[in-house]
Amino acid sequence: MIDDSNINAGESKNKSLPPVVARGRLKEARIWNGLRGWKIWPKGSPLGWAADHVYLASPHNWQHHLRRWCARWAPWLTQSELSELISSTAESNKRWTADQCAVALDVTLDDRNRLGFRFIGADDDPNYDRRRDTNQEKTNARARKYRAKNRSGAPRGRPRLQLTAEEMEIRKKEQNAKRAREYRAKKAAVREHDASPLNASRCIESIEDIRCSVTDFCVTDLNSHCAERLQRDGATDSSGMWWLDADLDGDGVGFGPPPRPAPSQPPI
User: Fold this and answer.
1) Tens of pLDDT along 151-170?
2) What pTM was computed for the model?
3) Is 225 exposed, middle or buried, given 0-12, 13-18 or 19+ CB atoms closer than 10 A?
4) Are 210 and 244 in contact (CB under 8 A)?
């Protein structure tokens, strides 16, 4: 007998696989072995796979269940071989996918479909191409059955209007007139929005239109430092007003001195 106290440390490992899935795989493996004529698991069979799933099916007392399973399905194991199997099971990661189970048990896709396996995959369809096509065919068959059961018998699409040729011509003219009215109303709304005072910049025609004092745009007073610097540079007058002027460098609008009245012409 081996000491199970050190093996219990492996119980906290991979528990992501639900016990019901592990039990389902063991049941399908028993069905598959029965079809192959195996009353017990022969030597050379994947006992590691079976031991991992016995662990996952009963993780709380897995040593006891594994010994019982081996006594039933692998009676040819010696005591040393059983101890080695228990030790390796405690250290394995137990991350078996459905297709990996199929590879261990030699289950093909045709065998899986014929036996109706749900927990074991297939070893000859690694990219799921055949299973995807099969599922799509089943989906299409269900859709055809549903449509045949719930259809009204009328042809598909919107039903045709029971109108004469003259009435159809009148209807087309009314629809065209309605589209034209909606288009004109939309264009008028765009023009009205463009002419709104909120978009006054669209109406600027020259730089003279924006020559004005900053008080027309901002109500914040200039601090003393900025006022002195701007007055020194000639951009403000004695009242502290600062102005926008045309940029002589051609960059757009810049700061400049306030406009001065033009000198009067001497009489001729």
Assistant:
1) 887 777 888 888 999 999 99
2) 0.53
3) exposed
4) yes
